């Protein structure tokens, strides 16, 4: 067998796994891995902050269904991506985090407070599927193969591999065996469609159902089966509910899509006699399918039908998740893509929810949004909901939309009703700062296609990684950031006042973010009136640059005025906003 350095061998192993990019700052300690990857056509994507690179990698994995990789410098560089590891763990993304470790000789010396050294493998063990250090050259293959294997067994998730830099910097070459394929070193991760018995029971349940509903989550994205999911949903012709992480699998405007726990979507979830769940753990954001009533959120207690009257099919790749959050009548342990192939074409023999019935309810839902937009006033500073209504008119339907954190991000989600198919948001971990990095990942995926990545969020979360605007410019990422500007932490204002009647450090100095963007080489727009939104969007789309559109919104409305879900169910309840932290009597549809 030919001889190789450790760095070259690691590059070959990463290439065999299908990794196409390394998200990492340039670093001399693992620079030889970076160089070896570039020689193999795997480019380095160098962010300004390791955590932004980590978030970008997990979002790229979600968009492509691929394993992704993140690197960092020894010590502080690795510490910086810890939050991204936690987010990838919570979201279930197969991301490999690598980090140089101190040399084996130094790590073996008894002592404390060693320069740029904390036992990262031990620290990260609780938020990774696998965490280890390559102690000897002959163990490189075994450690990397085990990391990739564990990342895909059951619930997917990240892994950490530490590599002593003495292994990387020396020129010694070693004899390694042949490069294996993923099918060889992690065969158990390539699942079939479930057993014949499971499939037969599921088919019988679908055929006998009179009111079926399809529930889908982010696992459909991670499996790269959006097109197949659309075909299955349209063939089944049943109402579709999407979890928070599944938003955008089908457009909001698709005739079968309804919103969970709102209006007609609530009617369907409560009255369905069969729920087909795919790509979701049936977690707490959808009330565990009704299995765990939460007293503090009474609206969710009745989002699903009664046990015994409503049956569930749950398609899941991790057998430990079956029955964990909700006991289901028809569990299927298997690959979602292959399972849908087996179930494709199976339809209810007779249904109460025919095409006409579903169409009438979709019309009611669309009318509720139209009224919501129409009643939002044209005021200065701008109404956050009206801003979102206007922005939607200029977003190309083939864009990928991501949401940042803060109040404006919540307004964007409440007022969004668009033909875009492709949304991303950190859901389970709720990482406020991930939105910008998610948008950059979408821009990387869409680069050269003529399509756009659109990010909508507040100014507080946007400024976490403001330097990454230069990253977008350097890599020519077609990304537009729409920043709702209320000059502070709008999401904290209502919470602080509700908790102790005062606010502390929620307001920022006035910053022209559009000018900051221009200084970094991006396109900048400053918008103060509704009439200027569409022209600003058009200029940004035509600029052939990453762009920042700073839209000035009303601070009090942004903090207090987000309407309750009931506005889309035919009623108004302005005293109840997200979290119950609103200012009584503040009507978000009137100027003040």
From TrEMBL:
Domain Thiamine pyrophosphate enzyme central, first and last residues per copy: 202-343
Protein's name in the database: Thiamine pyrophosphate-binding protein
Similarity-based family: Belongs to the TPP enzyme family.
Any GO molecular function: flavin adenine dinucleotide binding
Lineage: Bacteria, Pseudomonadati, Pseudomonadota, Gammaproteobacteria, Cellvibrionales
Cofactor or coenzyme needed: thiamine diphosphate
The Thiamine pyrophosphate enzyme N-terminal TPP-binding domain, residue ranges: 5-117
BP terms from Gene Ontology: isoleucine biosynthetic process; L-valine biosynthetic process
InterPro entries from the UniProt entry: DHS-like_NAD/FAD-binding_dom, THDP-binding, Thiamin_PyroP_enz_cen_dom, Thiamin_PyroP_enz_TPP-bd_dom, TPP_enz, TPP_enzyme_TPP-bd
Domain Thiamine pyrophosphate enzyme TPP-binding: 405-551
Top-level taxon: Bacteria
Keywords assigned by UniProt, alphabetized: Thiamine pyrophosphate
Organism: Parahaliea maris
GO cellular component, one term: acetolactate synthase complex
